[in-house]
Each structure stands twice: as C-alpha cells, then as structure tokens.
Amino acid sequence: MAIIDVHSRSAVRTTALTHCPEHHVHMLAVQRGSWTVSGPHDRDKSTVSVGRFILRHFRHLALAETAPHTTAKVLGLPSETFTPLFRKRGIAGATNTAEMRLLLAHANMVQATMADLHPVGVHAARGTLVELAIAVVLGRVDDSEPLLGPALAQAAKGIANSRLADPELSPAMLARELKISVRTLQRAFAATGESVNTYVRHRRLDEARRALSTLSGHSRVSEVAAHWQFADSSHFTREFKKRFGRTPTDYARSTEPAEH
C-alpha cells in the first residue's frame, strides 16, 4: 500500500509509458486543480477535476497531466481486495462524501504518525485504510468495525474545526455528516479521552482566546462570546477561566500593547 501527496506549482505533463504494479489499484483524489491520466494510445483517458476522485486499476500509464497548482492524494491499494468490487473501468465520485472524508482523514493521520507506529499499529492502520476505501466503493460505512474509531473521531474533528462558529454544530450534526449514529460518534470520541461536546468547547475557547488577543475592553468580551456560540458572557467567563486560569477581560488586558 502507498499514500502519496502531490503538489504541483506549474502544469506537469509526462508521456513516457509507465508500468503500474499489478498488485495495486490507485485512488486519485484531487483537492485542487485537475489531473488527467490515460493508457497507451489515449485509451481509458480520465480527467479528475477538483473535488473528485477516481479508483482504477491502471496496468500502464502513457499520459499524466496536471493543471497548475494541483494538489492531490494518491492511494495505492491492494488489487485483490478492490478489483472484484468494481468494473474494469473503475469508479469515480465526489470527495465530500462521508466515506471519503473518513478515508482522507485517516490517510492524513497515518502519514503524520507512521514513523512512531509499532508494527502492530501499522497493521491496524493498514486494515482501517482498506475498510474505509471499501466503504467508499460501497457507499456506506460499517460503523460497527472497531478499527474505524480513530478515523471517525478525526473526520468529525475536521468538520467541527471548519464550523466552530456555526450555532448548529452538535454531535447530532456531526453524526449526520458522517452518516453514523450519535452513539457511534460518542464511542469513537470516548476512546480519545474526551467527549464530542468537550472537544468542541475547547476548540471554541482556543479560537476565542485568539480573538481576544487582538481586542481590548470589556465590551468586546460579549461579542467574542456570542461569535463562538457561548450562551452568555457569564458562561463564557466561567469556561474561559476554567481552561486558561484567568478571565477573558484579564487576558485581553494582558495582551494590550504597553503605552509609552
């Protein structure tokens, strides 16, 4: 198996015939730009645009062409597992589905921790990657699979981080986005040592502290509290002091530039 990140500043075009490993199918997920691949004599030509992916078994590649500033992730997956699951031409789809979000979140997590993993951890990471890629092909996640817990939590954190100021952010909303039950989501977070609500509250407090460092005055505290979805200034002050050891007003004052 392989996980490869691709970043191209300028357009890239290769025309040399490349032999692909027989034991791999390739998943190409484009996060920016576009990527075109084809076999000899332009057979089986496919262009993958931003926000899309393709999963195919390429025996030979005669063309690989990217647009300027293309960012993509390439996964090499075991062909004996995936070839029976799709037709010869493979499958394609969007990268914003729950299954692809989970797969990409897990791939990123594996890349970040691989150097520190014990062989048993490597085996588990590989198994989870295969299970999530199968979920992409089938369009559903087997949320009873215990190996998927870390990937579920990581994907939920990614969604939460992008919507911290959203008043609708909740365990139920995250579970809907990932097409799993709230109980499954809570179980995945429990393995990390904190609840979904605790994670969201701490991340909101982190962002509020960052906002306070650029503001001053008590009147601003209520605005920051409201933006990061705290019920009122009193609640915000209690939670902020519990996490950082000082009130929001004290923190804002401590970051004000000294007067000369």
TrEMBL record:
Coiled-coil region(s): none
Alphabetical list of Pfam families matching this protein: HTH_18 (PF12833)
Protein keywords: DNA-binding, Transcription, Transcription regulation
Record's keyword annotation contains DNA-binding: yes
Top-level taxonomy: Bacteria, Bacillati, Actinomycetota, Actinomycetes, Pseudonocardiales
Entry protein name: Helix-turn-helix domain-containing protein
Gene3D superfamilies in UniProt: Homeodomain-like
Superkingdom of the organism of origin: Bacteria
Taxonomic source organism: Umezawaea endophytica
GO MF entry, a single one: DNA-binding transcription factor activity
